[in-house]
Amino acid sequence: MAALPERGEVATYIPPLAAIDPRHFGLCIVTADGTVHMAGDALEPFSIQSISKVFALTQALGKVGEALWNRIGREPSGTAFNSIVQLEREQGIPRNPFINAGALVVADVNLGGHEPRVAIGELLRFVRYLADDDTIAIDEAVARAEQATGFRNIALANYMKAFGNIRHAPELTLGVYFHQCAIAMNCRQLAMAGRFLMHGGRHGRAGARVVSALRARRINALMLTCGHYDASGDFAFRVGLPGKSGVGGGILAIAPGRASIAVWSPGLNTSGNSKIGTLALERVAEATGWSVFGAG
Ligand SMILES: NC(=O)CC[C@H](N)C(=O)O
């Protein structure tokens, strides 16, 4: 699937993602007053993949609070999303919650001694609540494919288990992780779900509190510094907003106080982030002046 190299290449290591047409493009911007702007395939569902790490992190912080940081760092890794190299030197403590190793520890926290389906159901309900949309569902074919081919993730979970930083049987923790990555959403649903991060932790501008303002600020900070793996610096340089990508080609970006933005284009750059999605966000930031670093 390298027919359109200027759009990047779709992820092929998860078989159902290899079959997605790279010509898709969708964009949804929800502004602070609740106005929804959409373009292209904004209502077409796609696999949110690592964007789920934002919602799972929020869930885990709700369960164990700041104690989470005893098991996960808050520094950019400078390595690929699925890298294992730092874990040996750093005693099984992942650099941050957005690389796969960190997200597996988050999944382990969310599992919390229950059956995987309890943790998965809880996350799905949380995402549906955030998006105000009960139709959001898990694509079971994607979850099964990841379970069958996710050897790197299986290695990461087992390696961290050896350090005692995975508390459950690794296959249970992996089950939670694979299912959260397989949540299917469209750009509109995703932008709606990101509103709490634009509104300082509130569901809408005057809505119920989802998390404290401090927690929302910190999640945004982690998205800015770690949301695009070893390309997080480049994303901050080009777009200037907290953002989280997924290998399904989606990106959720937050302009605090101004907008929640979701973009989807399945072709990826070499760091596994949507190539055209990043470009589109760069253009949106340029056109609107939205940036956490000041307009320009
Ligand atoms: N960057 C991503 O979106 C990676 C998520 C994917 N499920 C994986 O574990 O490899």
UniProtKB/TrEMBL annotation:
One of its GO terms (biological process) is glutamate biosynthetic process. InterPro entries: Beta-lactam/transpept-like, Glutaminase. Substrate binds at S50, N100, E146, N153, Y177, Y229, V247. Keywords: Acetylation, Hydrolase. The keyword Acetylation applies. Gene3D superfamilies: DD-peptidase/beta-lactamase superfamily (3.40.710.10). SUPFAM superfamilies: beta-lactamase/transpeptidase-like (SSF56601). It catalyses: L-glutamine + H2O = L-glutamate + NH4(+). GO terms for molecular function: glutaminase activity. Its EC number is 3.5.1.2. The keyword Acetylation applies. Pfam families: Glutaminase. Belongs to the glutaminase family. Homotetramer. This is Glutaminase. It comes from Bosea vaviloviae. The gene is glsA.
